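Exercise: predict the structure of this protein bound to flavin mononucleotide.
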Amino acid sequence: MFSEIDISSLELNPFTTIGEEAFLITVGNEDKWNTMTASWGFMGFIWRKPTYAIVVRNTRYTHQFLEEGARFSISFFPPQYRRALEFCGSHSGRDTDKMAATGLNVVTVDNYLTYSEANTVFCCQLASKTPIAPEGFIDPTIIDNYKAGDYHTLYLGFIEKVLIQEN
Ligand SMILES: Cc1cc2nc3c(=O)[nH]c(=O)nc-3n(C[C@H](O)[C@H](O)[C@H](O)COP(=O)(O)O)c2cc1C
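Solution:
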């Protein structure tokens, strides 16, 4: 059972929550959707709104959904789901049923897809997309992240609501 909380009451450190922990990006609708694990991103303020930023390589199946989508969810999980997140981060929804393989249960909350096992969910309205291109790299080491030429797209989503699991 999820309940909405005021974003100003969030108590988390983005440098440990994002980067050290992983989360699921879920995009689509009940008929057609996909999810993948991510651990890069940002949260902050732009255009007067609380915003969550994700970076998704153009090779991901999820990238296709984001190109067509209007919203996405960011779902964080308790530590016992680490293996499920590893699975969703090492298999593609193009040829794998990630829910069948992990046992995660997708649920719809206020038009957003998330999971009954998630403990914190950011519901985001897609606001902008920006391809990350090497012409913009000032630090010369950044290019090392793109040996296969699979550049990220930076997607910004306005955070419409934050849900937490009530146990
Ligand atoms: C811990 C972890 C973090 C990841 N973070 C990202 C990320 O931030 N951006 C990205 O494009 N891929 C990231 N990946 C890789 C994707 O999750 C992986 O390629 C996934 O299989 C893509 O699934 P899809 O093809 O169904 O979209 C990460 C994988 C793991 C295990």
